[in-house]
Amino acid sequence: MILLRRLLGDVLRRQRQRQGRTLREVSSSARVSLGYLSEVERGQKEASSELLSAICDALDVRMSELMREVSDDLALAELAESAAVEPVPAPVRPMLNSVSVAGVPPERVTIKAPTEAVDVVAA
User: I need a labelling partner for 120 at 20 to 30 A (CA). Which of 27, 37, 80, 92 fits?
Assistant: First the structure.
């Protein structure tokens, strides 16, 4: 199960670490206890919108940027979760300007005009 509070905490931690700042600095600037901020970053506490706003202000990051990054991480987590449940029978992996269609029946291969040159290699 994907927990939004964990994804949010991961993004907050990355933002803080990108700036080279400590938990103590950010907690002081956001006026939140160091322990509570630590729990938010570890995904153990659910942050209110007011607290998120204070942390974003302390990090000088727009909340929309924070949420966009959380949304991107959520999309990746959902893809990973669905891939674990529904395995893809024969992966089609892009490789240096070529595509391998090994294990895919010929009648299931459709090639559309690419924007750049692509080699199709039959296995």
Answer: 80
- HEC string of the chain? CCCHHHHHHHHHHHHHHHCCCCHHHHHHHHCCCHHHHHHHHCCCCCCCHHHHHHHHHHHCCCHHHHHHHHHHHHHHHHHHHHHHHCCCCCCCCEECCEEECCCCCHHHCCCCCCCCCCEEECC
Q: Which of 113, 106, 70 is nearest to 90 (CA)?
A: 106
What proportion of the chain, given as a percentage, has pLDDT over 90? 60
CA 2 to chain CA centroid, nearest Å = 12
Contact 78, 55 (CB under 8 A): no
Task: Name which residue leads in pLDDT, 85 or 119.
Answer: 85
Other C-beta atoms closer than 10 Å to the C-beta of 28 total 14
Condensed to tens digits (0 to 9), the pLDDT of residues 88-121 reads: 454 444 444 445 555 556 555 555 544 555 455 5
- Token duo for residue 83: 């891939």
